[in-house]
Write a structure and sequence with these properties.
Elements lengths: L1 H13 L2 H24 L9 H32 L3
Helix pairs in contact: 1-2, 2-3
Length: 84
């Protein structure tokens, strides 16, 4: 997440508001994923049951969103990274 934090900060100076907003959304969802991950793994993880299942489903939705973002990002950022 340190790399994402740095990119988010620098985007304010390098890209337009569309990209800044996108980085903010990615940051928010990355934090959500991290929070959910803590509930699923480690010493304070949730026991098997309805609450854990709900957290797994939320994490799955976020993971699918992130994978789609990775697929779409070249198109989104290409206009800013073209060399002339």
């Amino acid at each position: 997440m340190p790399l994402l934090a740095e990119a988010r900060y620098k985007s304010r100076f390098l890209f337009g508001p569309e990209i800044e907003g996108q980085f903010d959304e990615i940051w928010k969802r990355a934090v959500d994923m991290r929070t959910l991950r803590d509930k699923l793994h480690g010493p304070s993880s949730l026991p098997v049951g309805a609450e854990r299942t709900e957290v797994c489903e939320k994490e799955s939705v976020l993971m699918k969103w992130m994978l789609n973002e990775m697929r779409e990002s070249p198109k989104r950022y290409a206009k800013y990274l073209a060399f002339h």
